[in-house]
């Protein structure tokens, strides 16, 4: 069983956890900051717009050399892979809430965090029999949703 970063009342909340996902921790952190506090429906719509390249995610963490987007947003990007994974975890949390008997229309994201997971070691062959490290970083994402009165 995975441990969550915060303790919540299980009678009022539903949870979902994504473990060692193959997406960028940086992009996942930016998306998590963007959708924290949103309702379930608006967060799903937001992520679908990011996947369709219709709406950019503001780059708050690691935003050097990130170009500005249209509108009054500033630096941003379209992290499609991380958005797909977070959307899948959000749907898992929604299904868990439905199974517990909550009203899915009135659910809100109360906690979402994305942090670096285990690094998968790898290497890339180079000239003259040498090799360079090519490690793959993974991301852990946890989402907790709560019913709003």
Question: Keywords for this structure?
Answer:
single chain; 149 residues; alpha+beta; Ribosomal Protein L22, Chain A; three-stranded antiparallel β-sheet; 30% helix
Helix-strand layout with pairing:
Layout: E1 13-21, H1 25-35, H2 40-51, E2 57-58, E3 68-69, E4 74-77, H3 80-100, E5 107-120, E6 123-125, E7 131-133, E8 136-147
Antiparallel strand pairs: 1-8, 2-4, 3-4, 5-8, 6-7
Helix pairs in contact: 2-3
Could you walk me through the main structural features you see in this protein, from its secondary elements to its overall organization?
The protein has 149 residues and is of the alpha+beta class. It has a domain at 14-49 and 82-147: Alpha-Beta Complex (Ribosomal Protein L22, Chain A), CATH 3.90.470.10. Helix content is 30%, strand content 33%. It contains 3 helices and 8 strands; from the N terminus they run E-H-H-E-E-E-H-E-E-E-E. The strands form 3 sheets. The protein has a 3-stranded antiparallel beta sheet with strand order 1-8-5, with helices on one face. Strands 2-4-3 form a 3-stranded antiparallel beta sheet. Strands 6-7 form a two-stranded antiparallel ribbon. Strand 3 and strand 4 (74-77) form a beta hairpin. The longest helix is centred in the middle third of the chain and has 21 residues, at 80-100. The radius of gyration is 17 Å and the shape is globular. 28% of the residues are buried.
